[in-house]
Specification:
Residues 89-114 are annotated as: Disordered. Residues 200-405 form the DUF58 domain. Keywords: Membrane, Transmembrane, Transmembrane helix. There is one protein chain. By secondary structure, this protein is of the alpha+beta class. It has 13 helices and 22 strands. The strands form six sheets. It has a six-stranded mixed beta sheet. β18 and β19 form a beta hairpin. The chain is elongated, with a radius of gyration of 32 Å.
């Protein structure tokens, strides 16, 4: 039995006769009246166990979207059920909590006549990636007086996968336009030893004389040039470092969140270019993997694999990571390492093993830069700010030195702020493809 707010008001109303008519039995009589009212109300209330509860829920939702958890209440009893139902989702609060979802309007009042159904909907607002697990559904049936109720909590399973937001999607149209230019569908000439022959056309002013096909020119008796298109069916391996360095917060999110956005944009772009895309999330063991060679399935596969990836407070096993890459790649490929350019982490692990990758593959390292570091370097109005600027300057120099050492070993280094990392990495991919280096 559960007491309602109306029962509390009835009990407080008993204070009036106690004050006006002081008598030894007044309190006891009024308490007895309240108990009798509650007992009668509970006896007349429908049993909550006579309500069959079913849930309907989408399987996934993007981080920036909303999802509806719909509960269907079917009354199998003989009395009309005056129901207060609570659909619990951790933490069952408005957006901004620490759990994967915030629930709007988790409590609903509805009357369910005998033999009929009623539906109630709880709007879920995701606040982070991951799997959100529904809590128990609490059903409370009130009596006709509304002073007491019967209550039960039921297990109605529900799981909602919160996918990455993919906010970098806005950069995709412009990069696809550039990709079409490289692919020869626009009037742009592509040069590079690594491109594939496409067709012949008549020479026009401005064409590179090195592209003239002299045999075709002799046959046609007019100057003919070769056109080229970027190579297809290359292998692109996206490697996300999920070690402790990925847990560092840059602005309002972790480094891993920016890496996830960059991986999604590059994966979709490479799939449109006809390349095979594979994803590997790794620190000391494989945290997630996605392989899908069909372009229409790349984004769902990557998003589903990245949905549950979280930083782990361990050091990266770089030799193990290199072994994982070698096991998955049998020919030359583009290996994109989404990790930190932290000098200590790179010098103690990556520099010793990266040569084994660059000898066989084109390697790109993409790292998130902290814009607050630049602010510290430029603010020098007070003594404290001068010391902060000196420390920030030293950190910048150390990161630059590490970048130089990586480039000397054949690694392309891309460092940008969280908002710029995804488009910068996509531009690097297009530049490598245009230069025939994939």
């Amino acid at each position: 039995m559960a007491l309602t707010s109306r029962a509390v008001l009835v009990a407080l109303a008993g204070l009036v006769p106690v004050v006006l008519l002081p008598a030894p039995l007044t309190v006891g009589v009024w308490a007895l009246v309240v108990v009798v009212l509650c007992a009668v109300d509970v006896a007349l209330a429908a049993s909550p166990r006579e309500l069959a509860v079913a849930r309907r829920l989408p399987t996934s939702v993007r981080l920036s979207g909303t999802a509806d958890s719909e509960l269907t209440l079917r009354n199998t009893g003989r009395r009309t059920a005056h129901v207060l139902v609570r659909d619990a989702w951790p933490p069952s609060t408005l957006p901004g909590g620490d759990a994967p979802t915030g629930a709007r309007t988790p409590r609903h009042r509805v009357d369910v006549p005998p033999g009929e159904r009623r539906r109630v909907t709880t709007t879920l607002v995701p606040t982070r990636r991951g799997d959100a697990i529904a809590g128990r559904v609490t059903v409370r049936t009130c009596g006709p007086l509304g002073v007491a109720a019967r209550q039960v909590s039921l297990d109605v399973p529900g799981r909602l996968r919160v996918l990455p937001e993919f906010a970098s999607r806005r950069h995709l149209p412009s990069r696809l336009a550039r990709l079409r230019e490289l692919d020869g569908r626009a009037a742009v000439q592509v040069r590079g030893a690594g491109t594939e022959f496409d067709s012949l056309r008549e020479y026009v002013d401005g064409d590179d004389v090195r592209s003239i096909d002299w045999r075709a020119t002799a046959r046609r008796r007019e100057v003919v040039v070769r056109t080229w298109r970027p190579e297809r069916d290359r292998h692109v391996l996206l490697v996300l470092d999920t070690s402790r360095t990925s847990a560092a917060r840059v602005l309002d999110a972790t480094r891993l969140e920016a890496s996830v956005e960059a991986a999604l944009l590059l994966g979709v772009l490479a799939a449109h270019a006809g390349d095979r895309v594979e994803l590997l999330a790794y620190d000391r063991r494989v945290r997630a993997r996605a392989v899908d060679t069909h372009s229409s399935r790349v984004l769902p596969a990557l998003a589903d694999a990245l949905a549950t990836v979280q930083p782990a407070l361990v050091e990266t096993d770089w030799p193990g990571l290199v072994a994982q890459v070698r096991a998955r790649l049998s020919r030359r490929a583009l290996v994109v390492l989404l990790t930190s350019l932290d000098p200590a982490a790179v010098e103690q692990g990556l520099l010793d093993v990266v040569g084994g990758l660059t000898r066989r593959h084109q390697v790109v390292l993409a790292s998130v830069a902290d814009p607050e570091l630049e602010e510290l370097r430029t603010a020098r109005r007070t003594v404290d700010q001068v010391f902060d600027a000196a420390a920030a300057e030293r950190t910048s120099l150390e990161r630059a030195a590490v970048g130089v050492r990586l480039r000397q070993r054949g690694v392309e280094v891309v460092e940008a702020t969280p908002d710029d990392l995804a488009p910068r990495l996509a531009d690097t991919y297009l530049a490598l493809k245009a230069a025939g280096r994939l």
